[in-house]
Amino acid sequence: MRIVETPTETYDVIIVGAGFAGMTASRELSNRGWKTLILEGRDRIGGRTWTDKRFGRDLEMGGTWVHWSQPHVWAEIMRYGLEITSSPRAKVAYWFEGGELKKGPSLYTNLDEAFQMFIQDSREHIPLPYDPLQSPTIKDIDKLSIKERLDELDLDPVTYDLFKNFWEAVSNGSTETAGYSMALRWYSLAMHDWRLMLETLATYKLAKGTKALLESIARDSTADIRFSTTVARVEKGEGGYEVYTKDAGPFKTKAVIVTLPINVLHKIAFAPALSKQKQLAASEGQTSRGMKFWAKLRGKYEPFAAYAPAGSAISNCHYEYEANGDSIIVGFGPDAAMLDPNDLVAIQKEIRRWFPNADVLASTGHNWVADEFSEQTWFFEKSNHQTRYLAELQRPEEGVFLSGADYASGWAGMIDGAIESGLAVSQKVQQYLDF
Ligand SMILES: Cc1cc2nc3c(=O)[nH]c(=O)nc-3n(C[C@H](O)[C@H](O)[C@H](O)COP(=O)(O)OP(=O)(O)OC[C@H]3O[C@@H](n4cnc5c(N)ncnc54)[C@H](O)[C@@H]3O)c2cc1C
Q1: For residue 290, is it left (φ>0), alpha (ψ between -120 and 50) or beta?
Q2: Which sign, positive or negative, has the C-alpha torsion 68, 69, 72, 73?
Q3: Nearest protein Cα to ligand 1, atom 10
Q4: For FRET with 223, which of 68, 104, 183, 387 sits at 20 to 30 Å CA-CA?
C-alpha cells in the first residue's frame, strides 16, 4: 500500500474506511488491476480492531477473538500462516444468585437447559445462516427482541437474571433492543451448538494481535491510502462519482465502497440520496452501545470468569494475562455511559463485587460509542432489522456499495463478517467496473 497526500488521478474505486472490510476489498480490487484509493478518517488502519500498547504490552482495544468456525477470517489466517493462541481457560467461575455471590467450576453447566430452551427450533428457523431470509418463519422470530424471547420461556428468576446478563454481554447492549433472530443466526453458524458459539466468540485469538492480520492484508494490497480524511459527501458526477471531505476533494472515482458502521452511516451525504430503506436502517441503528475495559490487578489470580447480575455496569470479566506477578483482566459492560474504562476508581468498585480486596493498579479502554468513527461497538441487530433491511443494505445503488461487518450475511458484527462482506462486495464492484 502507498500513502498519498494529494491524489489527483481518477480512481476506479474509492473505499471509505480501512477496517477489515475496506482492507480486504482494497487487496481484492487492487490485485485485479483496478486503481484503488482508501480514504480513512483515523490515522491508522484497523477500524474497530486496534492492537495498542497499554500496560507495557499489546492489548486489543476492540475486536479480538476468531475461530475456525468462521470461514472467512480463518481462510485469511491460514493464507498468511499466522499463529493462534488461546485465552486462558477459567478454572473458577463467580456469579450471583439473588444478590449472593456464588463460586464454582463453571456457570454454564447450570445454564445448559436454558440455552436449549432459548434456541429451540433454531434449525427450523434458520437452516441456512448465510441466507436467513429464505426461512418461512424468519418474520415471526425477527419480530422478537431477546428480552421478549426470554419472557416466553418459563425460567426461574435466578436463571432468568443470569441469562439476561449473558445476552447483555453478547449484544453489548440492552436485551430489549437486541434481536432474537441475530442470536439464532449465530447459533446456526455455530452448528446450533451453544458451546461452540461461546468458544467462537471468546476463546482463540491471533498470537501477534489483529494488527498482524491487517498488516498481512495491507502488504498484499497495492491500493493508495490517505489517512485523517473524513468523508462527508459522495456525489454522482460526470462518468462516475466525486467524494468530498469537509474541506478537500473532489476525489474522483468510477465506484465507491462505503464501509462505515451503521450508526455513523448517516454522516455521509449521498447525492442522489441512498434509498429510503437504507436511510431508515441507518437512522434506527443497532443494539450495541457498550464498553470493553482492561484492568491490572495487584497479585496473581487464578484464571477466572466472573458474571454480574443483569443491568450491571460490568456484565462479565475474566483473567487474561499474568504480568510480573500481577494479573491483567478484560471485561465488558452493556452501556458506555455507565462506566468509563479509564476511571480506575469506578472500575475497582465494580471488580470488588467479586473480589472485595481487589487492588486495581491501572485500567484502560477505548470509548467506541463516543468515537465519531463508530458510535457503537460490534454490530448486533435490533429486532425486525434482518427482514426489513438486510437485503436492501446489501443492494448496490449503481456505483455505490455498502460493505462491512454490519452488512454481512453470516457472522455479522464480527471480523469474519467484515472480511466476508469485503470479499463479496469486491466481486460486485468488479462486475460493475467490467460492465
Ligand atoms: C470492543 C469491541 C470488541 C469486539 N470484539 C470482537 C471479537 O472478539 N471478535 C470479532 O470477530 N469481532 C469483534 N468486534 C467486532 C469487530 O471488531 C468489527 O465487527 C470489525 O472489525 C468491523 O470491521 P469493518 O471493516 O466492518 O468496520 P470498521 O472496523 O468500523 O471500519 C470502518 C472504517 O471506516 C472509518 N470511517 C468511519 N467514518 C468515516 C468517514 N466519514 N470517512 C472516512 N473513514 C471513516 C473508520 O475509521 C474505520 O476505520 C469487536 C468490536 C469492538 C468495538
Answers
A1: beta
A2: negative
A3: 414
A4: 68
- Residue 48 Cα to ligand 1 middle (Å): 3
Stretch (H or E) spanning 157: helix 157-171
The pLDDT of residue 143: 96
The answer to whether the CB of 217 is under 6 A from ligand 1 is: no
Q: Residue 17: CB within 6 Å of ligand 1?
A: yes
Amino acid type, 250: P
Instruction: Please name each of the domains of the chain with its CATH number.
Output: 2-48+209-286+374-434 (3.50.50.60), 108-192 (3.90.660.10)
Query: Ligand 1, from 415, 421, 423, 425: best to mutate by most atoms within 8 Å of Cβ?
Result: 415
Q: Does ligand 1 have an atom closer than 6 angstroms to the CB of 186?
A: no
pLDDT digits (tens, 9 = 90+) for 394-418: 999 999 999 999 999 999 999 999 9
Assigned C-alpha cell, 214: 491487517
In angstroms, the CA 411 to CA 389 distance is: 16
pTM of the model: 0.98
Cα of 316 vs centre of ligand 1, distance in Å, is 22
Amino acid present at 255:
A
CA of 242 to the centre of ligand 1 (A): 25
With bands split at pLDDT 50, 70 and 90, how would you rate the model's confidence at 131? very high
Ligand 1 atom nearest to CA at 21: 25
Distances (CA, A) of 416 to 54, 67, 159, 292, 296: 25, 9, 31, 19, 29
Find out whether 48 and 39 touch, Cβ atoms under 8 Å. no
Retrieve residue 89's grid coordinates.
481457560
